[in-house]
Structures are given as C-alpha cells and as structure tokens.
Amino acid sequence: MRKQGYEPEPGVFPYTPVTPPGPGIEPEPERHDDPDRHNDPDPDPRPGRRVSGKSKSSLEAMKEVGTTPAPEIKSNIHCLTIIGQIEGHLVLPPQNKTTKYEHMIPQLVALEQASEIEGILIVLNTVGGDVEAGLAIAEMIAGMSKPTVSVVLGGGHSIGVPIAVGTQYSYIANTASMTIHPIRLNGLVIGVPQTYEYLDKMQDRVVRFTTAHSKISEEKFRELMFRTGELARDIGTVLIGREAVDVGLIDEVGGIGDAVKKLNDLIEEWKKNRKEVSLQ
Questions:
Q1: pLDDT of residue 233
Q2: Where do the domains of the chain lie, and which CATH numbers do they carry?
Q3: Catalytic residue among 78, 157, 170, 181
Q4: pTM recorded for the entire structure
C-alpha cells in the first residue's frame, strides 16, 4: 500500500508535515487575526448600547478624596486662590498651608497674555505673611489690563488687605474678617534705628497702596492700624463684613455669585471699550 504524504515546499527547511484529517472529521477552519480587533478591547455588535455606572476617574477620585470630580467647563473667567500664609523669601514649614509668590507672579503674567481669559476672580482666605511678597502680588493684580474682582471669604488679614483692594472691585462675606495692624518683626526689641526706619518706609508703601486702591483715607487707615485695646497684646483693628465696607476699605458685601456677576459686567464693559478703541 502506498503511503500518503506531502511534498515539502522547496527552499523551506525544516519542514513539518501536517497530519491529514481522518475519515469523517472536518478540518478546523483557519483563524485570521483582525488587526482592528486589538484596538477595541470590548467590541459590542449591538448598536446604541448605553454604559451605566461611574467612570474609572470618578471612582478613583471618590476613593482618594471622597468626592466626585467637578465638571470641566470652558470659561472666560479664571479663579485665582490666595489661601493660608503668603510665603516670600523664607520657606515656611511643610505643615503650613501657603501661597508661594514665585508661583503667583508667573501665573498672573500668563493670565495677562492668555487671549481666552477675559476676567480674573481672586478668592482670599489668608492670614497674611511676607510683606514684600504680598505687596508684589498686589501690584501685579492692580497692574493687569483685564477686569479683576476679589472676594474675601473667611479672612483677608495683614498683607492680604492690599491684595483684596488691588482689584477693580472687591467683595467681602458677611462673616469674613480683615485685620489691620502695623508692620512688625518677630521679637521684642528693634536692634538699630535703621531697622525701624526701614520698617516705617515699608509701612508707608502698604498704606499708600491701600488708600490709592480703595475709598478709605490715609488718616482713617492709620487710625485703624494703631488703635489700641481691641487686639490682645497688640495694636490694630479687626473689621468684620459690613464694617470693612463702612470704612471704605471694601466696595460691597457679597459672595461668589455677586463677584462673578460683577466680573461679567466688567468684562462686557471692557470688551465694549476695546471695540471702540480698535475702530478709532
């Protein structure tokens, strides 16, 4: 009996012959790989299928911080937060919540250049901090060409006062407070007269900036700064909500909704003025 075999293909070595199927057994169909199938790990032939449940990012956010992420929206308003202690030339301890001025200044420059940003909302809850760093941030905010609105929530103390009044319009919450006090160094004794003169000049810079960007007079601001009897072991004044408006330091009592509405009004006016200038 002649044995059935398969001739090897020329030029192919080694060659392993395929065992022919037995009688009554159908050969297994050939499998072809679809390259597009690898790109779709879960193909669904049913059109219009709806996937229920939360996305992976939402579940991870709930696991890490206990809340779902806020929805992303396209907005012409950028929210800038100044919270904790304003960190200047000295690095504060890691447990302190800080706002670093070397981060704020480049961000303000980028916001001034960004064409899609038309208004800036400054939200403050700060205890103050480095005087020169805070004054530099306030000068940057005051020098911006785009509309700016600030809202004090919780507190806007010490060098946070010039930052709050540096915007075109300012709000303060009913329960928020602002502390006005003289500039001081840590310690009990000022070593030399030159140090006192330097502090006095720095204090004049803060007073001039604050009075130039608010409705409060220099005499009233200095009177609040050097008032005695209100703060324990120190001199100064604490203004709460409406009191800051009554003395002319803040423009109006309000919250986030009022601040956003005012900022939108300022943006519309700013756009109108830009169109009039471009037509001329």
A1: 60
A2: 77-273 (3.90.226.10)
A3: 181
A4: 0.71
